[in-house]
Amino acid sequence: MTAVAENATGRGSGVVLEVEGLTVDIRTPEGTVRAVDDVGFTARRGETLALLGESGCGKSMTARAVVGLLDPVAEVTAGAVRVDADAGRVDLVTADERTRRAMAGPEIAIVFQDALTALNPVYPVGTQLAEPFRIHRGMNRKQARSMAVDLMRRVGIPEPQTRVDSYPHQFSGGMRQRLLIAMAVALSPSVLLADEPTTALDVTVQAQIMALLRDLRTEHRMAVVLITHDLALVAEEADRVAIMYAGVVVETGPVQDVFAAPRHPYTKGLLDSVPEHVAPGEELRSIGGAPPELAAVPAGCVYQDRCPLVRDDCRAARPPLVPVGAPTADRAAACFHSSEVENA
Ligand SMILES: Nc1ncnc2c1ncn2[C@@H]1O[C@H](COP(=O)(O)OP(=O)(O)OP(=O)(O)O)[C@@H](O)[C@H]1O
Ligand SMILES: [Mg+2]
């Protein structure tokens, strides 16, 4: 394949996950609401992409839609989720159930937000860790158990040979999070989504879990999609960031560039609302006002009601996420007035 052809398919750029136009509708007693609206981002091999935004902006819904594990009330109504597999690029949205199941684990995996309760209390952890090897690799009990022990060692659980027979409640919160990360990376996926992987943990354990994710990312050359509301964590851990507001991605780009010179008023508001030296784990203090209720997201720009730069055009039409800055900047913003943001 020539370099040009590689770029044309996106493969030469190391993109292993490409989300495009992803839209999720939720059925509620009051009617259908749109929780995720035309969301797009890419993740590349070996990098951490942060999905950053306030509570309720649609981060978890996006992550669940990407892996095809939405609640029954929610449905993907548009978009594509392309994942690189040995067989080529597969769109998980249109793939049949068999393909999707075959890819969950070996190609793309998720650590859920409420993960600490995700382990089954009635089985020893070893049985649960062995499952991917039995299902996807066809291993027998003994082989799969030895893989489970290996995996426990790799994620830093002491005495794995004996701990493999322990039950989830016999582990601390931090160790349970390690177990869940172990299950997710068991089959060396090329994409790992980690939804608030450290939120429930104290600061020391949080740092250990982030170090583990970094090590695993390097070891497996994974793309890690780190989902968080924690600005400082993003600054420390991520290479690129996609910032969400009311179900929409409002800005994307390399973290350092975006944080140094935001091109969307929401990003600027977020940065202005935190003290300069904020420690990881500290809550994002939000901007004056609140994000709109899903049922009341305005036509036009989603941020118009809180935006200091709002004009008539912002109310008339939704600004699309378009490239900003130099062609090589790898940045985009969804704002008609993005060139004015820095001085606002
Ligand atoms: N089962 C459901 N029924 C109705 N609305 C839902 C349901 N699940 C989520 N929502 C709504 O969808 C929106 C997006 O929720 P989501 O869980 O993706 O937010 P989030 O960004 O992950 O927030 P957090 O930071 O609190 O985890 C929210 O407004 C939420 O209230
Ligand atoms: Mg969430």
UniProtKB/TrEMBL annotation:
GO BP term (any one): peptide transport
Record has Flavoprotein as a keyword: no
SMART domains in the cross-refs: AAA
Keyword Nucleotide-binding carried by entry: yes
Major location (coarse): membrane
InterPro entries with a match to the protein in the record: AAA+_ATPase, ABC_Ni/Peptide_Import, ABC_transporter-like_ATP-bd, ABC_transporter-like_CS, Oligopep_ABC_C, P-loop_NTPase
Coiled-coil blocks: none
Molecular functions (GO terms): ATP binding; ATP hydrolysis activity
Phylogenetic placement of the source organism: Bacteria, Bacillati, Actinomycetota, Actinomycetes, Pseudonocardiales
Keywords (A to Z) from UniProt: ATP-binding, Cell membrane, Membrane, Nucleotide-binding, Transport
Pfam families, A to Z: ABC_tran, oligo_HPY
Protein localization: Cell membrane
UniProt membrane topology term: Peripheral membrane protein
Domain (ABC transporter): residue spans on this chain: 17-271
Protein name, UniProt field: Peptide/nickel transport system ATP-binding protein/oligopeptide transport system ATP-binding protein
Family: Belongs to the ABC transporter superfamily.
Cited PROSITE patterns: ABC_TRANSPORTER_1, ABC_TRANSPORTER_2
Gene3D superfamilies (UniProt xref): P-loop containing nucleotide triphosphate hydrolases
GO cellular component, one term: plasma membrane
